[in-house]
Specification:
α7 (about 160-170) crosses α10 (about 250-265). The protein is built from 11 helices and 11 strands. It folds into 2 domains: about 40-220 and about 230-270, Rossmann fold, CATH 3.40.50; about 270-305, no CATH class. The N and C termini lie far apart (about 50 Å). About 45% of the residues lie in helices and about 10% in strands. A hairpin with a 4-residue loop joins β1 and β2 (about 25). By secondary structure, it is of the alpha/beta class. It is globular, with a radius of gyration of 20 Å. The strands form 3 sheets. A 7-stranded mixed sheet has the order 7-8-6-3-4-5-11, with helices on both faces.
Length: about 325
């Protein structure tokens, strides 16, 4: 019988594999590892902030919500959660997961439906569908957070997402987009922009999966119908192969790209040339913002307020 692999830090069985360490750890040391990296991000946010977590129901956003709720007392955080119901087939299960998660952590609940609140649906064309989801998600997260008085929006983007983001923008020569390669972006109140925080910035996709499993949090497995039709399906496996050979490579890559972006003066929002959209009043480089133009193109409506009917979980 093969001997059980021991934890990297103690003599207990190594129950969980941590890709960035290249080895296995026990449950206690995994949770220490996980929480240490979330704290690294939250120290930049500071104490006493109000944070709205965007929750899709998948493991990453659920992990971000529960991790922030775990540390709410330590950092004096007030936590809210927002689900944007995009109306894809099977999303009902994710809405149920959202309801249970919000109830368990006691967060303030917000729900925005593309169909009911905006009068639109995600188109069938894969390339246009991604544009719609991306534009709507970014706008709605910021606007709900601003209207409800939050300081930051938190998302479930993890280290693997950041590595793909950095590499993709390098190979497509979109270097300016590296300004977003950071764990925390401060608010710009005069432009109605809340801050952004990525609690899982230093944690892998597998770490989020392990954390959710250990704490017994709910999650849904509904997939985007267009998943696997973009470059991520090709690039992320290559990054995983690289990490399997050199476990610290992805952490080092993201940290190095972030440092290069900082040295080049890219980090942080560059808001020169922005003005208020004449329709919704939120930041835009043109007279009418991309969100309002998109909703009009899809035959929908932009409500005067998006916050309404929120409640405690």
């Amino acid at each position: 019988m093969m001997a059980t692999e021991r934890c990297l830090y103690c003599e207990r069985p190594g129950e969980h594999f941590v890709p960035n360490l290249g080895g296995r750890v026990c449950t206690e040391h995994f949770l220490r590892y996980f929480r240490k990296r979330v704290r690294r991000v939250l120290r930049r946010v500071g104490r006493g902030k109000r944070v709205l977590v965007g929750v899709s129901g998948g493991k990453d956003s659920v992990a971000a919500l529960y991790a922030l709720a775990e540390m709410a007392d330590e950092f004096s955080l007030e936590i809210g959660a927002l689900m944007i119901d995009v109306g894809v087939p099977g999303n009902e299960a994710c809405v149920e997961v959202f309801g249970r998660a919000v109830s368990e952590v006691g967060a303030r609940r917000h729900l925005v439906s593309l169909r009911d609140d905006l009068g639109i649906r995600v188109p069938d064309d894969p390339s246009f569908a991604c544009v719609v989801c991306g534009t709507v998600t970014r706008y709605v997260l910021n606007r709900v957070a601003h209207e409800a008085g939050y300081d930051y929006v938190a998302t479930g983007h993890n280290l693997d997402d950041m590595a793909y983001f950095a590499l993709n923008n390098m190979i497509t020569h979109n270097i300016a987009y590296l300004r977003s390669l950071d764990s925390v972006t401060p608010p710009i109140p005069e432009l109605k922009l809340v801050g952004r925080v990525r609690p899982l910035f230093w944690l892998s996709d597998a770490d989020a999966e392990t954390y959710v499993r250990i704490i017994g949090a709910p999650r849904c497995s509904t997939k985007c119908p267009h998943e696997g039709q973009d470059k991520q399906a090709l690039v992320k496996p290559l990054l995983n192969d690289l990490r399997s050979l050199w476990p610290t490579s992805i952490v080092n890559f993201v940290d190095s790209m972030r440092e290069l972006a900082r040295m080049a003066g890219l980090l942080g929002e560059k808001m020169e040339g922005f003005r208020e959209c004449v329709r919704c009043g939120y930041p835009s480089r043109t007279e009418v913002c991309s969100f309002c133009r998109l909703v009009e193109k899809l035959g929908g409506r932009v409500p005067s307020r998006l916050v309404g009917g929120e409640s405690r979980g």
